[in-house]
């Protein structure tokens, strides 16, 4: 990451969090397109839903940022991030189950929690610390919600076994 977290002020921290949500939103939409929709509740629906959650959280942060820093430009951009919350690019597969898609989302929330947890050891500004504590807590809540969703989904592939693209396979 191209940012010195110890030097973040509240404006930069909000911009970073907004961009993290946007990067994740874009990635989920990409995944939804890649896996394709086959039926209601499939992996594509999970990824589309996650994109909507990321967008909503990003909008909340943007509203907050505009209220505090209405006319001040951002000094943080997407080029300075790399998958701080967004799911890893290699995750989607053909015939991916909804369960597998939720696992991808769960890992992303855990990754974001870890980022905020590690960042708290570095940031100096008390307002940034407070924001990162808040965001870390939200990531934990998102993880709990995904765990509940995961518990309701069936184990195994959602297509016949001989057609399934299993996790860890080369897809071919």
Number of strands: 0
**Helix and strand sequence:** HHHH
Secondary-structure-based class equals mainly alpha
Number of helices: 4
* Biggest sheet statistics: none
CATH superfamily: Ferritin, core subunit, four-helix bundle
Strand content is: under 5%
Low-confidence sequence ranges = 164-172
| Gyration radius, rounded | 17 Å
Residues in helix, %: 55-70%
Shape-level CATH architecture: Up-down Bundle
Structural account:
It is a single chain. The chain has 172 residues and is mainly alpha-helical. It has a single domain (5-81, 91-156), classed as Ferritin, core subunit, four-helix bundle (Ferritin, Up-down Bundle). The protein contains four helices and no strands. Residues 164-172 have low confidence and may be disordered.
List the helices and strands and how they pair.
Elements: H1 10-35, H2 43-68, H3 98-119, H4 126-152
Helix pairs in contact: 1-2, 1-4, 2-3, 3-4
Give the tags.
172 residues, mainly alpha, Ferritin, 4 helices, 59% helix, elongated, disordered C terminus
Summed up:
The chain is an all-alpha fold and 172 residues long. 59% of the residues lie in helices and 0% in strands.
């Amino acid at each position: 990451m191209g940012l010195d977290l110890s030097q973040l002020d509240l404006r930069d921290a909000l911009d970073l969090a907004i961009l993290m949500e946007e990067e994740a939103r874009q990635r989920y939409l990409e995944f939804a397109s890649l896996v394709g929709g086959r039926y209601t509740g499939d992996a594509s629906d999970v990824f589309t839903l996650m994109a909507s959650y990321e967008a909503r959280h990003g909008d909340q942060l943007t509203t907050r940022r505009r209220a505090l820093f209405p006319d001040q430009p951002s000094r943080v951009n997407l080029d300075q991030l790399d998958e701080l919350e967004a799911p890893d690019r290699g995750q989607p597969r053909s015939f991916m189950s909804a369960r597998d898609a939720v696992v991808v989302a769960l890992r992303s929330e855990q990754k974001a929690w870890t980022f905020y947890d590690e960042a708290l050891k570095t940031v100096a500004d008390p307002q940034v610390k407070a924001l990162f504590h808040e965001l870390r807590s939200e990531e934990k809540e998102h993880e709990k919600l995904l765990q509940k969703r995961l518990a309701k989904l069936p184990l195994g592939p959602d297509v016949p076994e001989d057609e399934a693209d299993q996790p860890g396979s080369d897809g071919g």
